[in-house]
Amino acid sequence: MINIVKIGGNVVDDPAALSGFLDDFARLKGDKILVHGGGKEASRLSRAMGMTPQMIDGRRVTDAATLDVVTMVYAGLINKRIVAGLQARGCNAIGLTGADGNAVPAVRRSPKPVDYGFVGDINPNDINSSLILRLFDSGMSPVFCAICHDSCGSLLNCNADSVAAALARGLSIYEEIRLTYCFERPGVMLDINDESSVIPLVTAESFARLREEGVVAEGMIPKLQNALQSASAGVDEVRICAASALLGDGGTIIRRQ
Amino acid sequence: MINIVKIGGNVVDDPAALSGFLDDFARLKGDKILVHGGGKEASRLSRAMGMTPQMIDGRRVTDAATLDVVTMVYAGLINKRIVAGLQARGCNAIGLTGADGNAVPAVRRSPKPVDYGFVGDINPNDINSSLILRLFDSGMSPVFCAICHDSCGSLLNCNADSVAAALARGLSIYEEIRLTYCFERPGVMLDINDESSVIPLVTAESFARLREEGVVAEGMIPKLQNALQSASAGVDEVRICAASALLGDGGTIIRRQ
User: Which of A60, A162, A204, A229 is the most buried (most CB within 10 A)?
Assistant: First the structure.
């Protein structure tokens, strides 16, 4: 079984939360991969350098100067901080972009209808599974940021949720996969103000119903769609939970169908 | 035989020189490692962020904010640019800091007599040779920047020449090693204004003589001392040459004694 865990800005931006999470991730048994987002650090650095971060539909428009910034922040600062933190906890982490060892090749997104610049998308079939399985054999835990490459010399800014999903789908041919999305809430909730209202299990059918009834909030729709897609494409279990629940059982689970 | 090649700012800072170098490095046969310095990019970013780079005897004083900057620039921007460039040239590069896979553990330098901050030194015996040999077995070429870690969670800014030397000495137990330092001149020259005056071979004896006669210039003394030390510690050949001469024969050679 391979655990693939994705963390975002709510963990990466908060030193105490990150430290607690790394304690838990280091304790996770067996083969594991960590995929991290970038949080607010990239926007902070952009602003410090006199640039104005531009987002369309929550995605960063990545011109050449912004690509340099996200490469510095995601592949440099955050990735290596996490790797050093895991090493100190006895977890033999190895930080990678998709370019390293050609681990995650991507394709630059078409500039139409929206030109996002150096932004890429990933085909799960292109994941370099043999590299990752060899790293596992050597006792290492890959730590991925969402910087990938087009195999023609250009780095591409990808989406960390998508990198995690592509790794999960690509590796699901070889091993049972548990994909965990850590986010700022304990799971998908019936009532956004009631933490005890987490829906323990979502299926394609219940998702359609929840969506019809307007129960799942806007931000949750792509997350759940993504999870359902992974589960229908071979990922055995997708869990959406709080970072602090990594070693526990809580959260919302979507199972392979 | 393992080729270990170190490049510095004169290559890293010049896109045309870097591109030509990567062409050559990709063509280099067999197992190989690239170690790169950071060039002026780190100072530029420091200044853009309102910091004043501080150097003592050519070494960067690395406070916490500067450590973030060099981690971003060396481990992020430059390392991943090189990796993507090599991948595009058919060389299966994997970019690493010393923290990744615990490849190159370092020890923080004593704050006395000079407090350099988060600066580390490397013991060649600590190099994680088995990791590097396994990467070679998988057909990969490691690309190292000089960011290492103290195994307790802190990254450390190290010297790229020293990282290259430590890798060469650490791996010399297993394989014949050729260590190449690319720099801005064609080699150690008798007359700094005459490129045809390169000294083809330097030994401990000839170095002592050249130094006595005042032939070797100031900056060359530590470079040659370092090379002689590597050669006496098991590295089969150290070559000091221009980056453009990587595939050729020129430069100054120091052989194992």
Answer: A60
Which residues from chain B sit within 8 angstroms of residue A76, using beta carbons? 71-77, 79
A20 three-class SS: helix
Q: Which residue of B has its CA nearest to A69?
A: B77
Q: What CATH superfamily is the domain A2-184?
A: Acetylglutamate kinase-like (3.40.1160.10)
Domain locations in chain A as residue ranges: 2-184, 186-241+248-257
Describe chain A by its helix, strand, coil percentages, rounded to 5.
40, 25, 35
Helices B220-232 and B160-171, axial angle in degrees (round to 10): 10
CB A12 within 8 A of CB A41: yes
Q: Is this complex's ipTM strictly greater than 0.90? A: yes
Query: B153 contacts in A (CB within 8 Å)?
Result: 84-85, 87-88
How distant is the Cα of A207 from the closest Cα of chain B, in angstroms? 40
Number of Cβ within 10 Å of residue A208's Cβ equals 11
How does DSSP assign B167-201, residue by residue?
HHHHHTTTS-EEEEEEESSSS-BSSTT-GGGB-SB
Q: Classify residue B151 by burial, with Cβ atoms within 10 Å: 0-12, 13-18, 19+.
A: middle
Q: In this complex, how many residue pairs, one in chain A and one in chain B, have their CB atoms less than 8 Å apart?
A: 125
**Do the strands A2-7 and A177-183 form a parallel or antiparallel pair, or are they unpaired?**
parallel
Q: In the block, which residue shows the tokens 């270990």?
A: B4
CB-CB contact of A187 with A198 (8 Å): yes
Cβ–Cβ contact A123 with B under 8 A: no
Residue A257 forms contact with B (CB below 8 Å):
no
> Over the range A121-152, which residues count as b (16 or more CB within 10 Å of their CB) and which as e?
ebebebbbbebbebbbeeebbbbbbbbbbbbe
| Subunit contact A80:B88, Cβ cutoff 8 A | no
Q: Which CB contacts under 8 angstroms, 24+ apart, belong to A216-223?
A: A216/A188, A217/A192, A220/A188, A223/A161, A223/A181, A223/A183, A223/A188
pTM given for the model: 0.96
| Mean pLDDT in order along chain B per 10 residues (257 residues) | 96 96 98 93 90 84 95 98 98 98 97 94 96 98 98 96 97 98 92 90 94 83 91 97 94 93
